[in-house]
Amino acid sequence: MVGRTEVGSVLPHRATPYLNDDNRAFWTGGREGTLFIHRCQTCAKWIHPAAPVCRYCHSLDVAPQPVSGSARLATFTVNTQPWIPGAAPYIVGWAELVEQPGLILTTNLVELDSADVEIGMRLQVVFEKDPVHDIWFPLFGPEEGDQ
Ligand SMILES: [Zn+2]
Question: How is 30-72 classified by DSSP, letter by letter?
Fold first, then answer.
């Protein structure tokens, strides 16, 4: 069992992502509290991870758009192996965004206890600021009212 984890307490540090024109909105949108996901302007499918071409219709007309940040937990695991020195046990989950079936972010679950985690539970995005860079890691906690 993992005790309640708060935003900023999951890992002692995270790898800094390399920003490019495709993923910049995803990694910096948390500054305004908004999760951005790439969307094809031709077939309207959401695409994650962001890419310069739509994986469904091969259109090059893709761009980041805001999503609600609401998701359901598709699956999860509790990591107790201290792969990173100083890291406490933490929860890795697949957050399936409500905008599209199969639109999944692999993320950390926070603001809950591992004993309270259930597949299918409703989640809401929260952001963890990188301590140095203007990068905001999207994590997921329980949606208000679902705890
Ligand atoms: Zn498309």
Answer: GGGT-EEEEEETTT--EESS--SS-TTT--S-EEEEEE--EEE
